[in-house]
Each structure stands twice: as structure tokens, then as C-alpha cells.
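To: structure subgroup
Subject: Chain for Friday's discussion

All,

I'm putting the inputs and outputs inline so they're searchable in the archive.
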Amino acid sequence: MKKEWQVDIQIGMSYPDCITAPELKTTALRSMDRALAGEHFIEVQYQPGLSVWWELNWNPIRNKAR
């Protein structure tokens, strides 16, 4: 099996720290910003190196007090 990300995950790392492909990191950060702004959306992505389709469902987490 081909390793795509090849990251040594350490305590304290965030999800973006583990993304080694710049274009994937940019997309992930943009999506996180949208969800943190309160937007709910679904993304469909294809990862050619693995021939895998991903469906990502982004939902904001809200504090009931706000």
C-alpha cells in the first residue's frame, strides 16, 4: 500500500500539521474556516494517488449560550 502523507504524528499536532500536500492543506484550511464561521456544507474530493473518493460533511459546533 502506498503511503500518501508519511507524517510522524506527535502529541499537540493539529490536523493541518499532518497534511503534506500544499493544495490539500489550503483546501482543508478554507473548509475549516467556513465551518468555524457557521456554515454547513458537503465536499466531494478525489485523491488520485489512492484512487479514493472522499465525502466530507462539515458542520459548525455551536455553544448553546450563543
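Points worth raising on Friday:
The first strand starts at residue 41 and ends at 47.
The CA atoms of residues 46 and 53 lie 4 Å apart.

D.
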